[in-house]
Here is the input.
Amino acid sequence: MTTRRTGWIVGALAVALVLSMIAPGAVIVLAVPVAVVGSILTRRRPTGHEDRDVAERLVAAAATLTSERTSSDGEQVDWGAAVRAELATITVPRERRRFAVGAAVALLGRPHSRRSFVVAAAVAVAFGAGVLGISRAGLGDDGLGSVTMLLPPVMLFAIAYLCARSTRSLRFGLETGVVAALTTLVAVAVVYGVEAARWYHVAPDVSVLDGDHVDFDSTRAAVLDVVHPIILLVHLVFWSPWPVLGAWAGREHRGPPPADA
Amino acid sequence: MRRSRKPTPQTIAVVLALADNPSGWSHGYHLCRQLGLKAGTVYPILMRLAERGQVETAWETDPPSGRPARHLYRLSGEGARLAEELRAAAAAEIPRTSRSGGVIRPALGEAF
Here is the structure.
């Protein structure tokens, strides 16, 4: 346990060090979730199942990723526990592996919750409106890039954390966080496009992204500069760990589920 | 509004296998073996049927020591009505299938 805690501290320091070279403000904003997740994870108790075979590990991983305690009608359902119990009755190794693969596919392939999309859409609209408001108030010296890079990780972490924690469902937290990341990226692209076109007419030599002076020869060039696939990809890569960490932390916050999942 | 789609042959096989079980409750793995279907096929069907209220689920109340309680499945009243409809549809389908030379897959054929 001490080793794990040390690992998290070293990891958080490494992340902070790298971020401090890129953007000093990011250290505070992004190192906090790492510290939260680390402190929660290092409180975990040993599972006592270290001797599990591949089949059981596979089903256990799929069950953990998709765990949820209640169905839409409020009845208790735990399909992960159901397939794990069934696996426990199979003794032939090859048959266990076949069953485990099928069960994992079944668990991971369950239909997505509509609530995830509703929450994700609301988050994207709110964030897009916020960025638009900031842009209309003035770009300042740093443009919108620092806002669109640094704020969503915190927001996505918080949403995934709250969703996973409130429903005790890692799946719901993950789904909502990941879908929110994608919808927020679309919102950012739309706002960047609109605002790049607008600012080109107000101040043609200013980049919406970072406030630097750039010579654009047309509105189209100004728009394409900020909605470039590489720019959007960098955003997504920078954001992507945080909804995952948030969902994980949200589920772990309540401790292990009462069943054997 | 729920979409009404024609059940797949695998869904029909699972429903009829549950209907044919004289003891009432079935296990997921037993259904897989009985029908020659993979868990990745049978469990999504059971999940859907349970969500639609066509299958009732329960946990074993007195499992043998050393292993967890298994999850059990049986048709609800609505599921039993679905099974009757599917049986009637299958009965009506068989003469046509015979005339057209259609072949029922052996593994799924056991369920009919």
Notes: The two ends of chain B are 31 Å apart (CA to CA). The CA atoms of residues 83 and 112 of chain B lie 11 Å apart. Confidence is low (pLDDT under 50) at residues 101-112 of chain B. Chain B has one domain: 9-97.
